Amino acid sequence: MKKSTFGMMLFVVGAIAYLFISLVSVVNALLVEQYFLPLFVFSALGIAGFVICLREAYFKK
Q: DSSP states of 9-55 as a string?
């Protein structure tokens, strides 16, 4: 598997999970603070995948 494909998969999974968990946590934020850790984990996955995509697409020859 190419690194750019791996980065794209990380970015897509992180972005979708971030959106889903942020929608759930907006509803649940006033009641319980249990969704903040997965929110940070999936946003870190999305950011890491985005950085890998950018590096492989534009800075690697």
A: HHHHHHHHHHHHHHHHHHHHTTT--TTHHHHHHHHHHHHHHHHHHHI
- Report d(CA 59, CA 53) in Å as an integer: 10
Stated pTM of the model: 0.51
Alpha-carbon span 19 to 55, nearest angstrom? 24
Residue 38: Cβ-neighbour burial (10 angstroms; 0-12, 13-18, 19+): middle
pLDDT digits (tens, 9 = 90+) for 32-55: 666 666 667 767 777 777 777 777
